[in-house]
């Protein structure tokens, strides 16, 4: 039985009485944990990094080159780093809030602590919609990949159904610790796929979508773009979507053996993700210009497209597994919390668990079948749900835990900066949602 002695010292109010041997262990979220049921507190430090990186790198990296084409190379990369900084801060606040409130499992628990039942309902609805739409985009991208590597004239709708079946099977693995092995396979596969495309478009000298002309082809990449309002908002939304795994960090830290290691793991994840996005997205856009394909793996065309998607399929499957597992586990925990069935192997436990993963998968499949255009689905998620999940709640969480420090005493510079920053993020989130709504509708 995994346990963290440090947790016992630093959490006196909600002591995580993790014990060794045949005795039961207590967790503030999962209740009594024993050898007779799943161990929901068994994700190590390296496994945490891998899960976080795989949660981030997946669908978003495939949309970055097209976002750079809209915004231009320089504004696009600047926006990418701004999104990285904001979501890194948000990720840090997630860890701090979890350590301060050990009973929190997901972001809706934070909403409930701060704003009561209305806050819980609002954030829970946004979280479920956000991740189910993510799962739908994962199904769509996986179906596009299977269609690319297949020599059969099977329609994408059939492949979407096949992708949904695989997603249901793998996301039904009960603990994130057991999903880590899939992330270890998925992450190098998706990175290999995008590296292959990056090298290929550089060597070929002409992307697949470019017109056939006499003489050498020159990329029409732009330093600064000239998008319309709607195009600009959609592109920025795509960049925010690239960091869409941030709200799921709550679920990951809740299953860590030692939550004290979370800040270092999160910072390592964000550094890796940002470097990969900037380098690969920038290089592919530099060579393809406005003739970038979306998803980007189709940019090289021909055999390279088949090879790259062949490598990418396990990576896309890993992404779909995680983004389906997280909302299903969210619903599952809330349905059985406080019951012995949550951490046991009872028939009720299994029926509820499979019902959650199946329900999420079916809704995600319907979304993927209804909006079968990758860029449109990605920008819709980023514009309408990204700010609500990745920006606003974290600003409110900092204010909730730190606002009292500025009352009745001299306000420190760090408190003033934190307050201004948090309020600014809340306002930015509201503005982003309004702009995204205007641009989409």
TrEMBL record:
Residue span(s) of domain Amino acid transporter transmembrane: 47-430
GO cellular component annotations of the record: membrane
Main location: membrane
InterPro entries reported for this sequence: AA_transpt_TM
KW Metal-binding (keyword) present: no
Keywords, alphabetical: Membrane, Transmembrane, Transmembrane helix
Transmembrane segments: 43-64, 70-92, 113-133, 139-169, 181-203, 264-286, 306-328, 349-371, 377-400, 412-433
Topological relation to the membrane, as annotated: Multi-pass membrane protein
Annotated localization: Membrane
GO molecular-function terms, A-Z: L-amino acid transmembrane transporter activity
Cited PANTHER family: AMINO ACID TRANSPORTER (PTHR22950), AMINO ACID TRANSPORTER (EUROFUNG) (PTHR22950:SF683)
Family in the record: Belongs to the amino acid/polyamine transporter 2 family.
Protein name: Amino acid transporter transmembrane domain-containing protein
Source species of the chain: Penicillium cataractarum
Lineage, broadest ranks: Eukaryota, Fungi, Dikarya, Ascomycota, Pezizomycotina
């Amino acid at each position: 039985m995994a346990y963290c002695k440090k947790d016992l010292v630093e959490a006196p109010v909600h002591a995580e009485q993790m014990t060794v041997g045949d005795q039961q262990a207590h967790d503030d979220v999962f209740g009594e944990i024993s050898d007779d049921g799943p161990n929901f507190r068994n994700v190590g430090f390296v496994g945490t990094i891998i899960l976080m990186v795989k949660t981030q790198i997946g669908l978003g990296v495939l949309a970055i080159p097209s976002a750079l084409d809209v915004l231009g190379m320089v504004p696009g990369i600047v926006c990418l780093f701004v999104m990285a900084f904001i979501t890194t801060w948000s990720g840090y606040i997630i860890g701090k809030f979890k350590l301060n409130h050990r009973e929190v499992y997901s972001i809706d628990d934070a909403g409930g602590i701060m704003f009561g039942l209305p806050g819980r309902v609002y954030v829970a609805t946004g979280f479920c919609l956000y991740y189910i739409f993510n799962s739908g985009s994962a199904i769509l991208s996986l179906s596009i990949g299977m269609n690319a590597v297949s020599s059969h004239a099977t329609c994408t709708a059939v492949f979407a159904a096949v992708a949904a079946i695989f997603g249901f099977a793998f996301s039904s693995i009960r603990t994130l610790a057991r999903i880590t092995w899939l992330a270890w396979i998925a992450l190098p596969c998706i990175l290999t796929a995008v590296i292959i495309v990056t090298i290929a478009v550089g060597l070929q000298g002409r992307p697949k979508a470019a017109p056939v002309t006499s003489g050498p082809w020159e990329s029409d990449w732009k330093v600064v773009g000239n998008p319309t309002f709607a195009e600009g908002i959609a592109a920025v939304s795509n960049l925010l979507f690239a960091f869409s795994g941030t709200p799921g960090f709550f679920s990951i830290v809740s299953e860590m053996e030692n939550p004290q290691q979370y800040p270092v793991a999160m910072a390592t994840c964000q550094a890796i993700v940002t470097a990969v996005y900037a380098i690969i997205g920038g290089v592919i856009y530099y060579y393809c210009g406005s003739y970038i394909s979306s998803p980007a793996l189709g940019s090289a065309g021909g055999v390279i497209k088949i090879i790259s998607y062949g490598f990418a399929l396990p990576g896309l499957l890993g992404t779909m597994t995680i983004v389906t597992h997280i909302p299903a586990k969210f619903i599952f925990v809330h349905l059985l919390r406080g019951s012995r069935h949550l951490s046991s192997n009872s028939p009720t436990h299994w029926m509820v668990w499979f019902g959650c993963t199946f329900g999420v998968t079916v809704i995600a499949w319907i979304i993927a079948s209804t909006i079968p255009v990758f860029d449109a689905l990605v920008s819709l998620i980023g514009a309408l749900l990204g700010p609500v999940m990745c920006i606003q709640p974290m600003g409110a969480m900092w204010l909730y835990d730190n606002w009292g420090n500025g009352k009745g005493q001299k306000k420190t510079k760090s408190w003033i900066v934190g307050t201004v920053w948090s309020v600014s993020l809340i306002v930015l989130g509201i503005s982003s949602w309004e702009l995204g709504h205007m641009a989409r509708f």
